[in-house]
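User: We ran a pulldown and think these components assemble together. Before we commit to crystallization trials, I'd like a predicted model of the whole complex to look at. Sequences follow.
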Amino acid sequence: MSPRRLRKEVKGVLIAVGAFALIAFSVLGMNLFAKTQVKSTVVWELGRELNLTAESFFERLPLGANPTLTTDLSTIDPMVLGETEVQLVLDDKTYTSTLVIRDTTDPVVEVNEGSLEVGQFIEAQALIQSITDLQATTVAYKSTPDFSKVANVNVTIVVTDASGNATEVTAKVSVVNDLTPPQITVLAPLYVQLNATNPDYWAFTTVTDAKSGLDSTSVDDTDVVLNAFGTSTVILKAVDQDGNETTLERPVIVAAKPTVLTMNAMADPANQKATDYAKAVYADLVTDGMTDRQKLRAIYDFLLDEMSYRSDTSNDYNVDNYNKLDEYAKYAFENMVGNCFYYASMAAELIQEGGFEVTLIKGEGYSRTEPDHFLLHYWLLVRVDGKLYHFDPLYEQLYEYKRQFFLVTDSDIYGSSHQWIKADYPPTN
Ligand SMILES: [Ca+2]
Ligand SMILES: [Ca+2]
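Assistant: Here's a predicted model for the assembly, 429 residues in total across the polymer chains.
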């Protein structure tokens, strides 16, 4: 190695050592001789547990410095936004900093898929499944979506917290023609005869559909019992052309033949001549809170007090009597006179209006003037509290109010005031 080269190398080493010493001195000196410097603000995230120490408020501290907090940080609620002045002491000197609690966290948002009909609008809020944020938030569409045609629309929803932190999410909305299920309306209870075959479970109903129109109807009669008197349930189902479906549980009442004939005749849309009268009078007679027996008593008393017997009125009711009930009831409501069929008709319409089961019964009634003492007579059976009873206010009038015929049993009246073919009618209990 030439002397010149050696000098050059020694010089290089010296420069390196000098530089190192300078750096080491500087680093060491920073701690040994640094001036104390407090932070003007310390920022803390809303909701995060406050675990700050006095040292957290200093930018620089001399080695071994031991500052203390004068302000009690435990009184500061990290769940509340705000600024608090914090006092610190180091070597008898007081320092002041500001603790700022702020929210920089975007809301966490989950959305649902939506669906609506053309022409409807769904608010952004309705598509939100959940929002997680420590502050109140607002929900809005980024831009107003177009739901005017059948389509799958991706909408952008912006959720913004009270500090302005915002999250954008996308939700899928299907715009369809028809979301409205069919409407099944039951107009009257369904009465069927014992052991009926293929009863029409849709009798006295209407089925309509908005928008797409009805596609199909079906019944589930799995639970229907037709071979015993009583009530079971059929499930009616209607489906529209967009696949929306409605199901309805409908009671199926298996009853005696004359009961079925009475109830179905009165429910028949062709037999509604007395319906308006029956509704008006029933509404007048019956008040809220009445028991079923009290309702029936009010109907009975109305006939007892207001109807007058007259035998010279029409008697073509013997032909097709069930379908004559409305017509005769109408005459009775308008004239308040008539023979037994008018009494039975008016009472039947009022009792049906109350939602009770009623049966027209054709038999004979006692007459003092007749040689064999029994004459053709119509009256009613009515079901209340699950039991059948006879109901015949006319006979209370004919007996000059000395006998009453409100909810009486077979044995109360059979053979004395009334008789009928027992095999044709259900027995009272
Ligand atoms: Ca937030
Ligand atoms: Ca529909």
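The two ends are 135 Å apart (CA to CA). That may be worth checking against your pulldown data before setting up trials.

User: Thanks, that helps.
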